[in-house]
What does this fold into?
Amino acid sequence: MLDVSGGRTTFVALLLAFSSAVLAGCGHIAENTAPKRQATSSRSEAAVKADALFWQTFHAGRYEEIPTVLQALTAANLSDPNDAVTAAHIGWMHFWRLAESAGLDRVRPTIIYDAVVARRYFQKAVDLDPGEARYLGFLASATMAEGSIHRDEELARRGDYLMLGAIKAWPEFNLFTAGYVVAGRPADSEQFKQGLEWQWQDLDVCVNEKVSRTNPDYAKYMALATTEGPKRACWNSWIAPHNFEGFFLNMGDMLVKSGAWQTAQKMYANAKLSPDYAEWKFRDVLEERIANAQRNVSVFNGSSAALTGRARMMQASPFACMACHQQ
It folds into this structure.
């Protein structure tokens, strides 16, 4: 009697493999031929009202009201899922909640989900408005953050490459974003060193010359301040009322962490050149940083988990966003 069981098994296996390949191919075709999302051409009343609430809350630094804002933004998103601004603002609320979670009495492990949701909505904003370089920078930041949290090297590298594209699209804006997101890495890591270099490059592109690496006195550049064009990202604006001060606070922190505390003192001092410095709510933080720069070399290179409030580097502090955005 002829035994064909082995042949039959092989045939079934080949049939299953072929069927799987066909289904996978069909799935790929179906996905890639689906109609692309089209950004909304006019904004709904719900979206406009939700945005107003977003900015009122964000500029006032009312962190505790994030859930209320998310309710309004999510409702607006459900009524018009193709509004890129609403999608980006949902991403920002989740990112803000994660970024300034150091100010909470108790940080629950589920806070990490904010990185996942932020990335989802920033991706949606980029899909709807691919020409908006800020959205691309925020997507890159959220992707890098999620990759770091989950120790997912593939995702982290995807974020790195997204960030390179964002820098190319708007260097004045995204060189800061790129450096800021890696400020918490070890000072001797290649990521941190590159992040600090990106901060220097940001200064260079803002003033169209190489700023002194040993005596970065920004006074001679203050006449270049503008609210127009790409270089508006280098100065204060309605969106970021203290962007200038926050930039120098963060860069000073990164320089201290690198060990260059004397240069950091000069960098910190540049924040005082801002015409809005007197209204900045974090002046006392800056003054403490200048006074304690040498001591903070070891502080910033230790575990931030053991530190509280203003003792943390700006990037890991309860004012990680507000140092630039709070009115």
In short: DSSP finds 14 helices and no strands in the chain. The radius of gyration is 24 Å.
